[in-house]
Structure formats: C-alpha cells, structure tokens
Amino acid sequence: MISSKLARYTSAQQSWKEQTGSIMSVELSKLFVGKTNVRKSPGDVGDLVDSVKEKGILEPVLARPIGGRYELVVGSRRFEAARIAGLKRIPAIVRPMTDEEAIIVSLVENIQRRDIEPEEEYDAIVALRKANPRAYGSPDQIAKALGKSRRYIDDRINAVEAVRSIRRESKGAEITVKQAPLAKERQKGVLPVRHATFLHRAEEAQTVQDLPKRERASQLKELAQTIAPMPTPEAENVVSHFVMAPQRPLEDIKKEVSYLHAVKLEILLDPRVADGLRRAAEERNTTMEAVATLAIHSWLRQQRYA
C-alpha cells in the first residue's frame, strides 16, 4: 500500500528514482502546478533564482502526466525559480500517480523539508480524506500514512480550524498561523502552531461557548492578538485564565498572569483546599492556578477589597 511505504521513506527523491529509474528533461511550458501540490504559494524564491542562474536545477522535480502535460507534485519553488531565471527545460521524474498518491508524496516531501505552512498541511489532509475516506478518515490513519505522530496531526487540525473560525466570525481579523513566525510577524497577530492550539481549547470551552456570538468572536480575536507575541507558557496561562472568565478584559488577564509569573507566587494550601482546586480545574479543563486566582478575586470582591 502506497501510504505504508511512504511513511518509511527517509528520502522522497531516492524513492522516486527507485520507482522510475530515469529522469526526463521537460519543457517548462508543459509543466503546471495542480490541485495535488500542497504548496499554494512558492513564497520568496529570490535566493533560489540566483542559485538556478548559476548552477541550474540540481534536484529534479516530481510530476505526473496529465493529458499531454505534466502536473507538478513536488518542486513548485524550483519550477518558479526556473521560470524567473528564464530556463526552457528542467529535469523531472515523471510517473503516473493517483490523486491520493500525489497528495501523500507532496505532503511527505514538504513536511520533511519543513517547507510547508500549517494551513497548506490542513488543506492537503482534507483533500486526502475526500480522496479516500476509508483509508484516511481518522487522524491516526493520516499520522501513519505521513509518518508523523497523532499529536502532530491533531495540533495542525485544531490550530487551523481555530484560526479559520476566528477569521470567519470576526470579519477583517488578520489572524494566521505559521510554522515558525518571526517576532515582527507575531506582533501583528501571526500565531505559532502551539499558540493556535490554545485558541482551539479556549473556543471549545463551555464558558466561551455560552457567550453571545458577537461577544465570543470579539473576545477570541482579541485573545489571539494578545497571546501571539507571548512565550508559550505565558500564552497558555493567559488562555487558562480567559477560559475561567471569558467576559473579563484581556488586558486585566494579561497583567494578572504577568504579575504572577514575575513574583513566582507560592501558596501553601490546606490539603482539602488543594483537592477542591484540583477537581474544579479538571472539571473546567484549566489549571489550578487559574481556579485559585478566580477564587481569590471573588473573595476580595465579596470583602470589598477589590
């Protein structure tokens, strides 16, 4: 089965050569980027163009024959660089593939290169499910086919679905998720994958679901923008506190978490209190710290200290 073979590949290019045994020189005009190529954009290929002008295409692309032309399965960046550099032909490994095979090969190769963004991975996973629901209907099946962990697949699915939900519900929200966003991108609301999974957790929480739709969308959008620049532990703490009381101003939650992190507050608790906090945290899918903070705030308000 193609999926089980691909999961064991250590070099996608080597596996293609073993299957085809030859490399063709293909006219650039006969190549096109089709639906099975998981990369939706070649990105910045400036450095690659310079390399192609100097040395040519050193590694062949992979394509499949489609009606007298060749659909690129892997190598869209090399193809784009060759086009800009003015090449007429490039080396290509050409072999027949089903949609299912082509999507898997494209995914495996780009994941190995770390040359693909989470939303591109997500779209390819959805396409795999449509191509063969029986073989790729569950995260476990997809993880096995791609040679990745179940956690890796779950994180990509949850992260992208959370970000797209916020974009859909909050018109004009420039919230995106990237594999490794730069600091300046994070300041503008671009989320690392882990941060986006925290958003998914918040979105699924019953306390957040109970908010009116418009308020929920606004709060989740602000939450995404708030945690994007933060270190992972601080971002997770902010989300945990948010889930406990999603109607609170995000700025207050952020200041509270920063303060607790800075002073490294330690509280010695009676075992019964600790057990109560633990059970409350488990029921609300949050941390004991978040429950304790909410309880302290509630008591201070009752005593009119806050």
Quick structural summary:
The protein has 306 residues and is an alpha/beta fold.
Structure overview:
- The chain has 306 residues and is an alpha/beta fold.
- The chain has two domains: 2-116, Alpha-Beta Complex (Conserved hypothetical protein from pyrococcus furiosus pfu- 392566-001, ParB domain), CATH 3.90.1530; 156-302, no CATH class.
- Helix content is 61%, strand content 10%.
- It has helices spanning 2-6, 12-20, 46-55, 76-85, 99-113, 118-131, 133-136, 139-146, 150-169, 183-187, 193-204, 206-209, 213-227, 232-244, 250-263, 271-283, 288-302; strands at 24-27, 31-33, 61-66, 69-74, 89-94, 176-178, 190-192.
- The strands form two sheets. It has a five-stranded mixed sheet. A two-stranded parallel sheet has the order 6-7.
- The longest helix has 20 residues, at 150-169.
- The termini are far apart.
**Principal-axes shape call:** elongated
Would you list the SSEs in sequence order as H and E? HHEEHEEHEHHHHHEHEHHHHHHH
**Major β-sheet profile:** 5 strands, mixed
When the domains are counted, the total is 2
User: Helicity, in percent?
Assistant: 55-70%
Low-confidence stretches: 1-18, 262-266
**Strand order, largest beta sheet:** 1-5-3-4-2
Number of DSSP E strands: 7
| Helix-and-strand structural type | alpha/beta
In angstroms, what is the radius of gyration?
A: 24 Å
Figure out the total of helices: 17
* Overall pLDDT score: 82
Beta-strand share of residues: 5-15%
Distance between the termini: 65 Å
